[in-house]
Amino acid sequence: MKKIFKLLTIMMISLLVIACGEKKESGKIKVTTTLNYYTNLIEEIGGDKVEVTGLMKEGEDPHLYVATAGDVDKLQNADLVVYGGLHLEGKMTEIFDNLSNKYILNLGEQLDKNLLHKENENTYDPHVWFNTKFWAIQAQAVKDKLAEISPENKEYFESNLQAYLKSLDEATEYIQAKINEIPEESRYLITAHDAFAYFAEQFGLQVKAIQGVSTDSEIGTKQIEDLATFIVEHKIKAIFVESSVNHKSIEALQEAVKAKGGNVEIGGELYSDSMGDKENNTETYIKTIKANADTIANALK
């Protein structure tokens, strides 16, 4: 019996040594994220030093997303957990509060609350990635956290960050040039839910939406009727559906405009709470926000 126990002990130690050796050999930081925007950001800054698992895929709505047991396991076993905060992943708040991981990065906490849009006493508009200046701050925070976990790769992360910030500056200039193509009197961005306020503020648009900042809020007939009246009065050419939100509310708005004697087109699909994919050449944050600018400008100019 003692021999069997001794043999089992040796086998267990051997397996542990092998496992540790494999981890040491890979040397990668295991990161679990929520939105695919964050997945992409980690990949851009972390490069080949990270192994990223994103919980939410293309088209997922973070406001309504409910974590599975498998998701919780991925979060608990990560070296680093990255999420948006600001009540973006509203149905996962308790999970984040109970995580015991050593390294957790709440991206919303990296921003000055005085610069954010306050919804009520305790909540802010969480769609901060649509302001590229905010995104740059969060990219810096990602770099700092990765360097804290793996200080030997600090210069590598810094180099990736600087290259990324340069691309981000170029994207910002591209977007502004696109929005500038739209006549000032036509710069109205009408969407299903209020996800684009930071984008509108940065690039010079006026934004209106059927729902508030969360798709978890109810849609009333009066909201649609009032917005339809606004569209008719301002002769707005186009309204937009979103990739992660049901299109029915925008279609209902279009019908309400027609009932009032107006005419408004659906100008295309915008990426709001989720990036796109390779098929549509929107598989990165930068490609996604540039595609949004193209869609908006083409429909409104």
From TrEMBL:
The organism's place on the tree of life at top rank: Bacteria
Main subcellular location of this protein, as a coarse class: other
UniProtKB keywords: Metal-binding, Signal, Transport
GO annotation, biological process: cell adhesion; metal ion transport
Protein's cellular compartments: Cell envelope
Gene Ontology CC terms, in alphabetical order: cell envelope
Family annotation (InterPro entries): AdhesinB (IPR006129), Bact_metal-bind_prot9 (IPR050492), Lipoprotein_PsaA-like (IPR006128), ZnuA-like (IPR006127)
Signal peptide: 1-19
GO molecular function, one term: metal ion binding
Entry keyword annotation includes Signal: yes
UniProt keyword Glycosyltransferase, yes or no: no
PANTHER family: HIGH-AFFINITY ZINC UPTAKE SYSTEM PROTEIN ZNUA-RELATED (PTHR42953), METAL-BINDING PROTEIN HI_0362-RELATED (PTHR42953:SF1)
Name of the featured protein: Zinc ABC transporter, periplasmic zinc-binding protein
